[in-house]
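User: Type II secretion system protein K. Structure?
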Amino acid sequence: MRRPDPNRPEERGAALLTVLLLVAVMAVVAATALERVALATRMTGNGGAVDQGRAFADAGMVIARLKIGDLVAASPGKTTLAGNWMGTPQAIPVPGGMATARVTDGSNCFNLNSVVAGNNENSLKVRPVAVSQFQALLQALGVDVRQAQVAAASLADWIDTDSVPQPAGAEDETYARAARPYRTANRFMVDASELRAVNGITPAVYDLVRPWVCALPVSDMSPININTLLPDQAPLFAMLLPGQLSVAQARQLLAQRPAEGYGSIPQFWQAPSLVGLSPLTEVAEQVKLTTGFFRVDVSVNVGGTQVVERGLIDARQPPIRLVRRDWGTGA
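Assistant: Predicted structure:
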């Protein structure tokens, strides 16, 4: 076999082409390796920023819990809007960024778990008065009567522990006919987002009702604090007396609240605008002067990475404690 002759032009060209191909391949491999190193470096940096952001958010949650403790201790028998604490952003400088904390009344909402009675999750029974309140809330927000009735009854069936559907409600057989079959939970809701799975709750209805509902870790009737409920939240009071009090009347009542708040429940129910109304005993007791649950939102921005922590604080009795939290991130 003849050996290659480097003096022949065509063979020198072939050798040069081979070298060029090798250089090109090595360049691609090197570029890919550098890209992966850069990506790994960025991921490591982002992960570190997220971890640092979470640490700062945890610290902000602790500070908020202590401040809530001071608020409750300062006025144990009455929680009012005094001090402008409700919803006011509190900026907290942190190394490399800024944290912002907001505290709101976590009780002024419809407690989805109130549609059942009982704390033993093996025996949760439908509470009709709360089902009626949820239906009234939906109607006050513009949902038609029939759809509101279906949604409210189906919510009760979703949480109660029996398998018998309420009139207009839905149990397992309804969900078994879905494109992706599933079953009722038969337990308390942990987060209000679970409402999306309930029969009668369309995406439009969910978007409408989401700002007004919550999933407190108890089955108590929605504990509305009449001293912190804002006029814009009038539907939450109107739902307590369906057919007796309009949203407009409830809004006017809240706008006329004394600056120092109400000092007693009887004083509230004796307000001129409530004369002639006849709330059920459990509804009358549902109105509170204090806040039992506070919602805290902490947003931390460190190095362009945003971390959000949302927590639910139980302040019904000392020690005040964090009972639930979830996380989110943003660019």
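The chain has a mean pLDDT of 89. The longest helix spans residues 9-74.
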